[in-house]
Amino acid sequence: MPAFDHTSPNDLPAPLARWFAAQNWAPHPHQVQMLQATGNALLIAPTGGGKTLAGFLATLAAACRGDMGAGLHTLYVSPLKALTYDIGRNLARPVADLGLSCRIEDRTGDTSATRRARQRVDPPHVLLTTPESLALMLSYPEAPKIFGSLLRVVIDEIHALAESKRGDQLMLCLSRLRRLAPQMQVAGLSATVENPAALAQFMGGAEIVIAHPGPAPDIAMLPTTATPPWSGAGGAYAARDVMRAIADARLTLVFINTRAQAELFFQALWAVNDDNLPIGLHHGSLSREARRRVEGAMADGALRAVVATGSLDLGLDWGDVDLVIQIGAPKNIKRLVQRIGRANHRFDTPSRARIVPANRFEVLECIAALQAVEAQELDGDGRAPVGGLDVLCQHMLLLACAAPIDADALFAEVTRAGPYAGLTRADFDACLDFVATGGYALRAYDRWQRLVLREGLWHLRDPRAARAIRMNLGTIVAPELLSVRRGPRGGAPLGEIEESFAAALSPGDTFLIGGQTVRYDRLRDMIVEVTPQPAREPKIAVFNGLKMATSTELSARVLALIGDRAAWAALPCHIRDWLALQDRIACLPQPGTMTCESFQRGGRWYFALYSFAGRNANQTLGLLLTHRMERDALAPLGFVATDYATLIWGLEPVRDPAPLLDPEGLRAGLQDWLAENAMMKRSFRAVATVAGLIQRNLPGARTSGKQATFSSDILYDTLRKYDPEHVLLKITQAESMRGLADFGRIEEMLRTRAQIVHSMAPHVTPFAAPLMLEAGRIPIRGAGSARLLEDEAARMMAEAGLTLEDVGAKTQA
Amino acid sequence: MTACPFRFQDHDFIARPSGALFWPAQNALVVADLHLGKSGRMARRGGALLPPFETRATLERLGAELQDSAAARLICLGDSFDDDRAIAELGTERALLEQICAQHQTLWITGNHDPAPEHLPGLVAQDWHEAGLTLRHIAGDGPDISGHYHPKLRLAGQRLPAFLIGAVHLIVPAFGAYTGGLDHDAPALAALVPQGRAIVTGAAARMVPLPLPPQKRAGAARRWSARR
What we know:
The complex is a heterodimer. By secondary structure, chain A is an alpha/beta fold.
C-alpha cells in the first residue's frame, strides 16, 4: 500500500486522521504523546481514556504508511482472553474502512490447534494474545523467526499483571523478545496507580505519560429498602433495588467479588425481573461459549445488565455502560476506582457508580472506601524485591524447549527483566540446577537429568519431554477443576467446578452453574454429569473466585470509623445500632487497642480477634495462634481469617489471650509453624507446580486410578527431612512470608495496639456472627482433631451396633 | 502409637498406625506396595524429577516398624519395587535393604510392577499359602491377604490409608512413601469388600464399619444452609 502523505512517522497519517474525524473523534494529548514516544513508554490513564487506542495508534499509522512489512509487526498482550477478542473487533473497523493491509488475529488458550499451527509458520501483522500463549510461542524452535520482525509490543492492563506471577512471566518473555527483536518498542498501558515510576521500572524502564484524570466520579451507596443482613456475601437482599437501578439505566455492569456470589445474585435478580429485561452473567467458571455469547450480546447492545466477576474487571471497551454497581465491599480503593471507571467510557463525563454492601461489616468498608475515593487516596502494594524463582524455573524449561541454553547469556537476559534486575547469580544457578537435575543434595544418577550440558550449552535430554513441559505452562495454580456437562456422555458443557466441591456432592444434590440449578448425577472420567432442575432450590455453588485482602489503607479507615463515635454520623442508623450492640455484649474495637473475645457455641469454644490487618495477615496470625494454643493444650480445631478478624475454634476456651499475643513468643513460633502447617504445603504445591516438579492435572490426562496422583504434601515432608536446603523449600518459604502478608504487618499491629481488651461474651457476638459463616476454613491437625477422629470412629461403630470388644480389647503395640 | 487388633478368618491380627500388618501367630510383619525406586523410574522415563529420597524414607520406616513390632519375619505383598530395574538401581539404599533382610526372614510376593525381581535377599514367590490363608498381590479366590489397591478412606475430613477387612479379603494399604490411593468405595474395592470393617491409619489406627454410616459434613453443610 503506497504512502498517503509525507509527514514524519510520529504524526497521525492524514487518512487515519480523516477516519477518526469522521467518527467525531479527536486524539487526546496523551494518545499523541504515546504515538510520538521514541522508546518504551508507559501510559497511566483512567478508564475511558482511550488507552488501548493510544497503544495501537503507532501500529495503525504504520499500516496507513504501508510500513507493516512482512511478518509480525505488533504483539498485543492482555491478561484476559476476553480483551483480545474485544480489541480484535475494535481494530478491525478502521482497518476495514481504510482498506489497510494489516492482518489481525488473536491467539489464546481457546484458539484452535490448526490455527495456532498456522500462526507459527505464517504469523499475522498484529497478534493479540495472553502472557501464557506468548510464553508457549517462545518455547517453539520457530520463535526467532516468528518474533524477529517485531517492532511494537503493547501490554494492556499492565498494572494488573504487575500484581501477580503472570507479570513476572511476561517480563521474562519480554526480555527474550528484546533479544530476538532488539529494535522493538514497548508500550505499557495502565489504569491509575499510586506509583507509576515503580511500574515503569517493572517493564524494564519507560518514559511515563500521564493522562488527565477526568472529572470526579459520581459515586454513592445504592439506597436499599431492606437493611443489609448480619452476615452473608451475596447481596441478595438488595436484588429489587438493583433491578430498579438497572431499569433506570441504559447498560449496567454489576460487579461482585466471587463466582459463586455472581451465580446467586444473578439468580436473585432474575427472580425479581418482572419486565424480563435481558441480563447476562459472566465469570471465569463458565464455558467459553457462554462467556463469548455474553460478550457479543453486550457489544451488540442486546443486554441491559451483566453480572460479572473479575473476569470482566479489566478494560473491555463497552461505550454504552452508564452505571456500575459494586455488590460487596471493594477490598481495595484502587480497584474500586478502576471499576467505577467502567461506567461511561467517555473521558469528559463523570462515571456513575453505586455500591451495595453485602453485610453490615461491609457497610463500614464501603463507607470507608467512599471516603477514600473522595480524598483521592489510593492504596499502595509492595512488590517483592525479586520476581518469583519458580516462574524463572518454568521460563528456563520453556526456553530449553526452543533451543539449547547458554547460562551466561540467559543470566544477562533475565536480569534485564524489571522484576529480576536484582537476581543474584547464585539464585539463578540454583534454579538452573533444579531445572537440569532436580537440584537434590543427594547427587543422583545420570537419569536425574532433564537438561544435559554439551559443549557449554544446556540441552533438553529427551526432546519428548518438551510436550510435558509445555503442558505444565502457566503461573496460576488454581484448585483442581472438573468440567460440568449436561446429561450422560457428551452433553453440553456448562462450566467448571472445584474438585473439592464436586467431592462433597452426593447424587441428587443440586447446585447453581451458569445461572441454572442442576442436579448432580455422577462423576465419570473426571466429568461431572448433571441434569437441569429448574424448579429446585439449589445448594450454593462453592467454587471460590479471587479473594483479595482489604488493603492496609482501607482497613485503617474502617477501624478508625468504628473507633470514632463522632464519625458514626456518616453511618446508617442500623449500623450505629449494631456497633452499639457489640459494645454492649462484648467490646468494640478501637484504634490503639487489640480487641478480642471468647464465647461458646455448639460444643466448641470460639476465640475472635479483631485485628483489622487484612485477610492475609490474619491468616498468618491464625496459624501462629493455633500453633501456640496447641502447645497450651487448648485443642484448637481450626480457624478462619477475614479482612477484619481471625476466628479460632477449639475444644477449650481462651481465657487469657495475653500470653498468646506476646510478640516475642509469636516471633519464636514463626519458624516452627512455617515448617509444618497446611498453608506452607499449599504454597509448596503451587511453587512445585509452577517450577515443574509436579505436573498439573490436566483434563483427560488424569484417570481415577490409584496412583494417578500422590500428594505434594508427602514430597514436601520428604524434602524437609532429607534435603532441607532445597531451592523449592526456600522459594516456598519466601513466597508464603509474602503471600500471607509479611510478619511486619502483624508486628506493627501488635506494637501500635499494645493494649489487649478481652471479653468473655455470653454467646456469639454481633461481630463474630458473620465470621462463623465464612468459607475457607483452615483445619488444624492436632490433638483436637485426633479427639474428633476418635469420637467419629467410635460413633460409627456404635451406630453399626459394633464394639471394639467384639474383636478383642484395644492394646498398645 | 495406638494399634488396632482385629480378627480375620479366625486369625488375630494387629493393624499398625503405619499401615503395616502384624500377624502375631506367625510372628510376621506384612506390608504392601512399597514402590521402592519410584522417583528413579519416573526420572528414567523422562517424567518429573521427584526428590530421590523415598526409597530411603520407606526403608527407614520399615526398619523402625520391624524393630518396634519385634517381628521375626517380613512379608511384602508385591509392588515392593516400582519396577524390576529399580532393584539394580537401589544404590546406597541397597545396604539398608540387606540389613533388614539379614535380620528378618523375608518373603517377596511378586506384583504387577515387579513380576520377576532378581538378586533379592530372601524368598520370592507369586503367592504364598500360610495357616489357611493365601498371601498375594491382587485379591483373588479368598480367603486372602493382598495389597495392590492402596485403599484410602475419608473420615472426619481427612483421607487416610486404610485396611479393608471383609469376609474373605483383607486388603492392606500401601506402605511406600510416594503412593497415591484409591477410595474404599471405588467400584473395584467396594466389589471386594462390600461390607465389614476398615481401619484407618495415621496418628493412630482406628476401626470403622463398612459401609460407612453417613458422615456429618461439618463445615460444608453449615455453609450451604447459611443462605436458606
